[in-house]
Prior knowledge:
By secondary structure, the chain is of the alpha/beta class. The protein is built from six helices and twelve strands.
Amino acid sequence: MPFTKAPDRQRTRSLLTRRNFLKATAASIAGFAFYSNEIARHEIDVTQPTFRIANLPPAFDGFRIAQISDLHLEDYTEDYFLRRVIDRVNKLAPDMVLVTGDFVSRGPLSNAVAFDAAGRCAEMLAALRCPIRYGILGNHDCSVDRRVVRNHMEDNGLPLLVNRSVRIERGGEYFYLAGLDDVEFGQPNLAAGLPADHDAPTLLMVHEPDFADYAATQKESSKIDLMLSGHTHGGQVLIPGLSPLALPPNGRMYPQGHFNVGSFQLYVNRGIGTVGIPFRLNCPPEITLATLRPAVSIS
């Protein structure tokens, strides 16, 4: 009888272990991709910060502002998801709605796609029931075509503030809302955008949050009480123990949340959409529902 070598059970176990490991790794990657794309990217987080504002008129004590940002229709934000966001904002019944830029995306799809998306986005935003609503341009809007995006928004009832301010009035009292041009592809002008007087608080919209460091060095900064920004998407993918994986230029100093910069406050919204990859992890889309309160005097 010919000699038959006994099976190498250790080697067989090793191969099976390696194969199982590779299968498990592949399954984990697939699961991560599915969760980040289909679930985490569509989980809406409503944050509710309170901002203490010096000299806030009594008529605005408790005034609530809904901020959304970085809609990025349709790369990769779907129409149905933006409609869900708008419905959620309407249910919050804010006193004012602010959209801090990037209604559309520049690439990888063509500008023709972005032009169409701008029109659809504007039509959907017209469903916001709050009568006081304003926006600003973001870097993607300007890179695609600022004129096209602005015309669509304003034709559908969303005025964009580009280096100008307006008075928000209630009960004979008022504060100022200002907005600047995009930092990367526009010409932001603090002197032109902020109101001339100091008699009322001023809220300032600037798409890119790192502009706050520059603003804080300017003499006009004394007019700013609160700056609202977006742009960063909060980093999109946050792995515990690591820095955010995807922060854009002009959005690396202040990735998300509430900061004090110089003499004013800054709040950075995580945005609704994504760019680069359609993933979010530990960084859900955000609707900010901010409440204004008078500053507490210390005597």
